[in-house]
Design goal:
Shape: globular
Strand order of the largest sheet: 1-4
Distance between the termini: 50 Å
Largest sheet: 2 strands, antiparallel
Number of strands: 4
Helix content: 40-55%
Structural class: mainly alpha
Length: 331
Amino acid sequence: MAYGKPWLSYEDQLEKLTDRGLLVTDRAKALEYLERIGYYRLSGYWFPFRERSGKLVLLDGQRRKPPNPKRVETVALDDFKPGATFEQAVLLYIFDKKLRLLAMDALERIEIALRVDISHSLGSLDAFAYLRAELFHESFSRRLDPKTGLTRHHSWLSKQAQLIARSKEEFVRHNKAKYGLPLAIWVSCEVWDFGAMSKLFAGMRVQEQDAIAAKYGVSDGRVFASWLRSLNYLRNLCAHHSRLWNRNIVDQPKLPSALEMPWVVPFEQDAHARARCFLLLRITRHVLQRVNPGSTCPARLREHLQSFPDLSHLGLGLTDLGAPQGWEGTW
């Protein structure tokens, strides 16, 4: 298939945007941002500024509007909404960047604490508990993947072996030289990334899962396992400088009972809020409170969220991030 989009100079890129109605108050500064950040990355932030229209769908082989208006989907048009500016897109980009940095700070603390929790729990059973399939849930240690013929436990062990092999840490070299392989779990846990940690937790037995989850005020370890999987997703977005703003989350975390955590009430009946990153930030805030009650990170996150740029004239706000009305009251 031939690729139809031509290469454009930075000046041509800016001209294309202004032709479509995006206002530029400082042309030199706009060109600087295009050169430094890039058109494609910034486009994720001005995309919500574009006009939208009802989409024609195929019914009975013909393109026409469906009889039920609720079934009409909207598509973004090329033209921008009145009042949309290049500078507002940059402000949204900067807001998102700072949000990622704050989230990463919180997630680092959570990751370190949970490494200790998991290694301490499994280490009490055996110094090399991660090798013993009988110490994990059968869905993790016995059920075979029909594509690979391996269990998730086998796949996890392969991942950990890779992490150990490529580690340049002195403690890894020291333990290999003095004790050889395998490494004790309280040593090997230090090379786990968030993904390896969350997958191992998901494979643990119910009693060990529940005991760790209870430390964080969550009675059901399977709910907490879904939280860790989602926080790993959030961590990967932040680490790869990906957009949090207006992002749709397909693999959503489970919600605990509202009796257990009243702050989940606004999310229970709101599919939009459950599919946005604010829920993951709220989970981060809950877990971090248990990890370090004196941390200023939650307050800094709240302050930053409250600094969201005023885009109300474009119909945009924190609700597009998934924040429910009155979120500050339960933060």
